[in-house]
Amino acid sequence: NAGVMQNPRHLVRRRGQEARLRCSPMKGHSHVYWYRQLPEEGLKFMVYLQKENIIDESGMPKERFSAEFPKEGPSILRIQQVVRGDSAAYFCASSPVSGADTQYFGPGTRLTVL
Amino acid sequence: SQQGEEDPQALSIQEGENATMNCSYKTSINNLQWYRQNSGRGLVHLILIRSNEREKHSGRLRVTLDTSKKSSSLLITASRAADTASYFCATDATPQGAQKLVFGQGTRLTINP
After folding, report:
1. Cβ-count burial B36-55 (b if 16+ within 10 Å, e if not)
2. B91: left (phi over 0), alpha (psi -120 to 50) or beta
3. How confident is the model over A99-108, as pLDDT tens digits?
């Protein structure tokens, strides 16, 4: 059973471009969580999604950031018009059911904005 | 501010010694979890302790939870070079269960050979 997959692992964008980060949850998992980690810091929650629904987006910046988890395909975290402050590691986690204790994390996507 | 705060921020010990890391949090929780992160890598789940538990063991790991003090500790016994990593505590306080984990800043552990 493959773990949580994220791609790309590294992404370089120039200011003003768009970044698309993909996350495929573990097989059988229908709950996806996105976290952001700035250098030398812990992870901060961004958004929690189930298939076709955003459950909690309280950690998402109000502008330029959006997330989706369609019926088919991976979850996408989209950052429009990136700025240098968006440079960070973005981690996706998944769990099988709502209320499951453990979230399983992917390897992360490291975004660098030039 | 962060729900969880670890201390120390950095810890350097000799191989074979025990390492203790502490975590404090602010609100009532459902459970508290410890994760390990090797440099530049993803997070690996180590152990979960529920709010009604006081101590839990897994191999060389021992976790305690004191809900009255809102604190937890992670003890790694007989440390090895491979234990070098950052360790994070994460709390789950959502009523419905693990929807939003709140992480501390982490403790950077270095095991010297």
Report:
1. bbeeeebbebbbbbeeeeee
2. beta
3. 667 889 999 9
Q: Specify burial of residue A40 (Cβ count, 10 A radius: 0-12, 13-18, 19+).
A: exposed
Q: The tokens of B59 are what?
A: 């191999």
Say if CB B21 and CB B6 are below 8 A apart: yes
In chain A, which residue's Cα lies nearest the Cα of B4?
A42
pLDDT tens, A1-22?
579 999 999 999 999 999 999 9
Q: Which residues pair with B47 in a beta bridge?
A: B34
Expressed in percent and rounded to 5, the helix, strand and coil fractions of chain B are 5, 55, 40
Helix H or strand E encompassing B72: strand B71-76
Q: Which residues of B touch A48 (CB under 8 A)?
A: 99-100
Extract the tokens encoding B11.
Answer: 């810890």
Asked if A56 reaches chain B (Cβ–Cβ under 8 Å), the answer is yes
Q: State the DSSP string of A26-56.
A: PTT--EEEEEEE-TTS-EEEEEEEETTEEEE
Classify residue B24 as exposed, middle or buried by CB count within 10 Å of its CB (0-12, 13-18, 19+). Answer: middle
